[in-house]
Amino acid sequence: MSNEHLAEPTAARRRGVVHPQLSAHATRLRRLPVVPAPVEGEAFHSWVERTAIKLDVPLGIAARALGLEFSSAGKMRRPLFFGVTLTPASLAGLQLTTGLTTKTLRQMQLARYDGTALNFSRLDLNDVTTLPRLTRHQWFLAYDSRACPHCLSRNAVWPVWWRLGIAAVCPVHRRLLVDKCPACGVRLRRGGGNKKPSGLPTGTHYARDPQECGNRSPNPVAASQPEVCRQRITEIPTLSVPHALVDLQVRALAIADGGTARLAGEPVSGAEWFDALRYLTAAARLVVHDDELAELPGFAADALAAVRTQRALSPRAVPGGAGVMPGTASEAAAALAITEPILNASDWGAGARHLAPWARRLAAERQTRHSGRNPLRGIQHPAGLHRMMTAIVPHHYRIAGAVTTGSSVALEFRHIPNLIDADDYRNVMAIHLPGTTPVVGRNFCSLALARLAGAETWAQAEDSLDTPRRRKGNWGKTTQRIPDSQAFWNGIRTLADLLQKRGSIDYAARRRALSELLEVPYDSLFSIFRPVRMGVTRQRQRHAAAWIWQALTGSPAHDSPVYAGGWEGLSAASVTEARRKFHERVPESAARALTLWGLEWLYEQGTGPQPDSGAAGAVGGPARSWSAH
User: Fold this and answer.
1) Are 172 and 240 in contact (CB under 8 A)?
2) Rounded to 5°, angle at Cα 252 from 250 and 253
3) Can you spell out the DSSP letters for 153-215?
4) Does the reported pTM lie above 0.70?
5) What is the per-residue pLDDT across 541-575, written as a single tens digit (0 to 9) for each?
6) Number of CB atoms found within 10 A of residue 179's CB
7) Residue-wise DSSP of 312-344
8) Which residues are registered as beta bridge partners of 266?
9) Lowest-confidence pick of 260-264, 454-458, 578-582
10) What crossing angle do the helices spanning 538-553 and 507-514 adopt, rounded to 10°?
11) Quick count: other Cβ atoms within 10 Å of Cβ 62?
């Protein structure tokens, strides 16, 4: 991407900014007698600091002597877009006072990374408010810098890349970069601890040593003379980092400088590579697991774990969205390391294998914490990464589209239970519905069987299985959790084969017949419960009828007509709790006997002998001995 859009003002309304031509102050500028030569890769603020030392004047005075443009509004003592880019007026002033070329001056700005690590297309030089807005989405330090104390002990030059959001480690000294001054607690080169960045100092009492912190804090005695932090940056302790992390930093910086980039083995532009880095980092903040963090260096794992925990507990308490810039060098290191297996995968398939767990967790996160909305919406990512994500977690409309309805299997609606067998779901289908509760998953799989049998929509599938109205709903959220549509439908076909191999059961006929069974007769239930020393009450007679409904119709017990309209004198909560306790306390032998009694009762109602795929097993005729021996 070209930087030409930053060279000239747009037609947008200016907000308290001097017109970008040589001002009255600029017309009085003159060529300075001496300025230091910029070092390759040096940051603009670093060069201005060295110029101030060379001229023996405060930093703010040096900035004006260099011809930098300041705001005309208020008492702003900081050049416009200082170190980020140059306004036309600043560029003209610098050329007049220093004689440096446009290329040299622009190479010291963060704008040198526009089109690779950064995207400044929304930065309007006519509107100073666009800069803080840009920092919410782009990874750069607009008002401060990270630093390597070991580099500064060798010379006073601050590299411009230290102000990138991906700045994590020093490749020369294999040390983690420093974010804040340990003495004052303020970010390096911030100027002060206020929310807004401080202006450049103009008083002669301020330190001009590039190796000192120099941040200012309020002076309770003399308000006009803030206290200056004299912490030597070169004395700040640092952490050693692994060689692998150094290699990742070098690779990222090479791409930022225009080097070749590949995403999962495919050539991409530098901008696409950094878009992928930002997107994957945002995903990691939401769904990374402890076992994945364990593979990172300790300081990086701790930083990412802290961000994950903070966002999980209170997402709104964290400034910015999931795609915000790493707040520290440790978190930047974590971002480089945790995304490396995907970004630098040998091929598309290897990248997809590494991405798959995150993609599936994101699908579950979308439903459980974000009401179905994509938590990463608005974060730009390249087409290659989008294809990879879609292949792992297809769009929910692709689920129904992946199967041809009407003639897929020789299965009739009446042979499909409302809930597939719990063991079948666990063994065959649970893996295809991550983040879905078993009951919901079993119900959804039954509806999928109905789609396989010919239902054209989920609503038709519900109607074909006589789903109670109160349980009908929008299944779009469930389909979004399916990572592989083809594998899902292969599993559903396996379920259909199991139903047919076990013998077709007319669940619709069972539901019609058992809708008349509102309680198990006292004598029958007494014979079943006597061997297990359980008493018989009116409530247990009714709960037993609902238990049989669930065992033989493949429908939840609470859908039984036994509970329709409620029970007189009892609250719905009391009935629900009593039903739960009944199901928990019925011994296995009594449960078997109840099922056999229900099968006999169905036979007597004219449903005919049917194999039972549940607890009762297969029977070829009426069960005569159903007491719990």
Assistant:
1) no
2) 65
3) HH-S--BGGGGBTT--EETTTTEEPB-B-TTT-PBTT--BSSSSPPPPP-STTS---TTB---
4) no
5) 999 998 898 888 888 888 888 888 788 888 888 88
6) 20
7) HH-GGGSSS-TTPPPSSHHHHHHHHHHHHHHHT
8) 263
9) 454-458
10) 170
11) 24
